[in-house]
Every structure is written in structure tokens, then in C-alpha cells.
Amino acid sequence: MNKYHRYIDIPFELKEPPINRYADDEEFRVKGRCGLDQCKDRCEFANINACYDQDFFKWLKLSLKENEDKVQQFLAEYGLFSDNILYFITKPDDKMIVHIDNNKEEYYLAEERKIEDYLDDHAKINFTWGPKESTMRWWSSDKKDISIESDIDEDGNDWKLVIGDEKKSKLLYEKSIYKPSLVNAGVLHSVYNPSKVERRITQSFNIVDKKKIKLVSFQNAVEIFDKYITEQEEIT
After folding, report:
1. Where are the domains of the chain?
2. What is the pTM assigned to this prediction?
3. I need a surface site. Which of 121, 153, 190, 193 has the fewest CB within 10 A?
4. In angstroms, what CA-CA distances link 66 with 17, 71, 196?
């Protein structure tokens, strides 16, 4: 079985983002917000939390609060919760930089970390709206080609950005993400949107064990949500 993705049939209805996926959003982007050289001319992460005007982000987050509430209630049934909910927009004919989601909040894991500490196979639940042909890709890379960068926000919090070089990475797995999915965000991954006209919008939830205050691994998540998984895939 692959260790990167499963479709998940969540037991509740989702609210779609009130966004015209065929319109341009460039006026809401803040180029270079994260401080990375790669993002001076364009946002490589497409992270609405960090790369867009804050009023736009707050509006979208409020619009989809219904989904957030339902997910928290769902996770609570299994002794879990989500404490870092992210939103992404991938423009038409665009892709996201190779990266690892850093969902380790300071209050429960504050020590200095090495690159291998981020390669932890932690799971997330992703809701994506957009072209069916858009995909999520998982990669492997030599540790020397992975870097940890700092993104210091307006409150002085130092968020770590763990990024890879696609040209120096090997593609491991690729899957169309067009419906609710359980994904491995603790492996180098990226997003590709080949559509020429439609944007891709994602609402993303990390999964934390309430008792252990620890991120849930992909394999554990597959076992926990086994009855909701709709596709058991063999790696190709």
C-alpha cells in the first residue's frame, strides 16, 4: 500500500469556498511575504495564511468556519484535534514549491530540530476544490538538498519553512486530489495545477492526538479512519 494518500468519505457535508475559481486573485497576493528569495517575484507556497492580504484570508477562513467546526467535532470523537488549519490557492498552470508542512506548534514542541525531525510522515485531512486533473506529488531528496528557512510573521513568531529543490528530487507518487483526502504531509510534496483557466483551493487540517499532544502519523490515521477510506491503492 502507498504511504502517501487515501480518499476519505467524511460523514458530513462540506461548504465550498465562496470564490470564483475562474477569476484572478493577484490583487490579494503579497509577493515576498515569507522572505524567501524564491518568492520575491511569485509566491511559491500559495499559502493564503501567509501569502495573501490578511483581510482576504480572514474572510475566507470565516466563510469556511462551518467546515472547521465539523472537522473538529469529527476528530474529537477519536481523541484528536486540529490546531493549524491552512488554506492554499494554486493558480491555473502553476505549481507549488517542494516542501514539508511544518505543523509543529511551539507550545508542544519547542526544541531545535534537524531536517530529519520534519520527515515524520504526519497526516493531514485536505479538502480541495478545483480541476480534477490537478495533482499532489510526493518526492524524495538527499538531505543536503533540503533546507530549513525562517518565516517571521508580524507577531515575531519564527515559522520554519522546509523546502526541497524539485530539479534535485525524485518523484515517488502522484495523485489527483479533487475530493476529501488523507495525505502524508511529513514527506516532501508539492502541488501541480495543469488547468489553463481554473484555480485550485485547499482547506488543510493537521491531526493532533489530545493525550500525547503529538501529530498523528499517516499510517495511524489510516487505521483510525479505516471505515471512511474509500480506496485502498497499490503503489505503481
Report:
1. 5-10+25-228
2. 0.85
3. 153
4. 11, 9, 30
